Automatic annotation (TrEMBL):
Database matches in InterPro entries: PEP-CTERM_polysacc_export, Poly_export, Poly_export_N, Soluble_ligand-bd
Protein name according to UniProt: Polysaccharide biosynthesis/export family protein
GO molecular function, one term: polysaccharide transmembrane transporter activity
Key word Signal present: yes
Species of the source: Sediminihaliea albiluteola
Amino acid sequence: MSACYKNNRAVSLKSWIRSAALLVMAFVVAACAGSYPPVPQSDRLAAPDFDYVIGPGDTLEIFVWGNEELSSAGIVRPDGKFTTRLVEDLQASGKTSTQLARDIEKSYGDYVRQPVVSVIVNGFVGVPQQQVRVVGEATQPASIPYRRHMTLLDLMIAVGGMTEFASGNSSVLVRMEGGVQKSYGLRLDDLLKDGDISANLALMPGDIVIISESWF
């Protein structure tokens, strides 16, 4: 047996071992991804009540009734603060529009008699706790402001679906429940490719969808 033949045989054996190892790893990962339980039936169509909370990047309109010259509009800064015509550095992030309106009224009370203020949110970004995120093999991974009655199908439409490398039925939903992080299996292939509406479910603020990559 020539040295060249022995070397080729050794290389082939190493390649086979490496391929076998990758194959075993793929099966292990797939098995782990498929081991997550489905979302409980009682939560699949739930539509939780929530009050939208202003976040950095939101666009606000401030109306002061009877004092239109004090009305203004702008974007909440990255530090979560907002400046009006009379007051600088008002904390806006983490508050509802009603709460912020009352804060502005209190601040304006030093300049205007009994001010009546309304706050309207036009551009929505929200705080991270009220966003829904999609990572992994989404066509356009993104963080999207949660809205009531938002479903998994709505989310997938918003991110343009999955890439050709996605393993949709191995994907995972990560959700905080009572301060505890839980993971649930998703059937995105069944939902998007087969039109199986039973694979759809209601989302909740803060949900994270991880779309797995196919190993084959």
